[in-house]
Design a protein that fits this description.
This protein is an alpha+beta fold and 254 residues long. It is 29% helix and 27% strand. The site of adenosine-5'-diphosphate has 13 residues, from helix 2 and helix 3.
């Protein structure tokens, strides 16, 4: 693709360096009705994740007597993109729901909850590329917030290639006009890769560099995920206590 998306100083259209993430904010426990939830702002992406369960599995014929199902529904709402998105599932959202379900199922101890379903809803309120990564990052915080036993959380980020250079965390313009887009998700504790998709082409050297950027960024995102949970469950001072005590406190009382 022609064009200058990286300037002579090595800076990208939004001023970032090639190995720089967009600003990321994560908040856990934002919804009262859900068993667990998280809200993520990631550059111009705004993503909400809610977890319900483990609960009775629907449709019932999907029940597995040996383990829980993890069923994710990824959805981009109508005003999340500049053209109004046609509401409802499409091929893309079905694909993203599937890959996120599979990644989450790997970390949840599903064998503890046979016949049930852990339902994960991801709503993209505002999209600017990398929403599957932001969605998965939010969903794993929401699962942890729901108290669902899991091996680890899953940070995720896209790496890519623009102007023949490997870059971290593509924004919308870079995603649309770049040469490659490579979202990954990892288990920080083990280094296992739970998601890797590739759109475009990279040489082996570029791929290795992309992995270096991606794994480095996942470490940072993982830290933000843990910080969000710590903030959520920090003991508040008495004056700051809400009418309804935080779940941690209810557990201690019960
Ligand atoms: P991801 O959001 O995980 O990067 P894609 O690479 O498929 O997934 O999409 C890149 C970006 O393209 C999205 O984040 C969104 O900003 C935009 N986009 C995706 N689907 C649509 C759509 N139906 N209409 C308008 N923009 C879209």
């Amino acid at each position: 693709m022609e064009g200058k998306m990286i300037d002579e100083n090595g800076l990208r259209i939004d001023g970032r360096k090639v190995d720089e993430l967009r600003p990321i904010k994560i908040e856990a426990g934002v919804l009262k009705r859900a068993d667990g939830s998280a809200y993520v702002e990631w550059g111009k992406n705004k993503v909400l994740a809610a977890v319900y369960g483990p609960r009775e599995c629907h449709p019932r014929h999907l029940q597995d007597p040996s383990k829980a199902l993890v069923q994710c529904k990824y959805n981009m709402i109508a005003f999340s993109v500049s053209d109004r998105k046609r509401p409802g599932p499409d091929r893309r959202s079905v694909e993203i729901s599937k890959i996120i379900s599979e990644a989450l199922e790997y970390v949840v101890f599903t064998e503890y909850f046979p016949r049930t379903s852990v339902d994960v809803y991801i709503e993209i309120l505002q999209a600017n590329a990398g929403t599957r990564c932001a969605g998965l990052t939010a969903a794993s915080v929401a699962l942890a917030d729901a108290g669902i036993p899991m091996k680890d959380m899953i940070p995720s980020v896209a790496v890519g290639k623009i102007d023949d250079q490997v870059v971290l965390d593509l924004c919308k313009e870079e995603d649309n006009y770049g040469q490659a887009d490579l979202p990954i998700a990892v288990v920080p504790r083990t280094g296992d890769i739970l998601l890797m998709q590739m759109d475009g082409h990279m040489t082996l050297d570029e791929f290795n560099k992309a992995m270096e950027y991606g794994f480095g960024a996942c470490e940072k995102i993982y830290q933000l995920q843990k910080d969000a949970l710590k903030r959520r469950y920090a003991v508040e001072d008495v004056e700051g206590l809400e009418e309804e005590a935080p779940r941690e406190q209810q557990d201690m009382e019960g």
